[in-house]
Description:
- The chain is of the alpha/beta class and 115 residues long.
- The chain is built from 2 helices and 6 strands.
- The longest helix has 19 residues, at 14-32.
- The mean pLDDT is 96.
Amino acid sequence: MPTLNLSTNVPVDAVVASDILKDCTKAVAKIIGKPESYVMISINGGVPMAFAGSEEPTAYGEVISIGGLGPSVNGKLSAALAEILETKLSVDSSRFYIKFYDVQRSYFGFNGSTF
């Protein structure tokens, strides 16, 4: 149920995307405290984006989860994801925004129903 959606202006090839998906899945599961089997990650590379008027490498992410989020978790997750993006895509941590959504079970659908 934790879901991470990433968008970046950096083109992402299949090998790098696979590494990012694996690394982000592990980070999200560990930091939020949910099994990896519940975690979904998407990455959309090569998106036209600017940050502070510059088209240098940048990224935006959204984390949606039923519970598990809060100030200390969000800070740890933001740092871990920024490190992955810096290592894999050369996106400086100062050019990465992330938004966290802690949603109620009835607002998250799965398997033709809600949690």
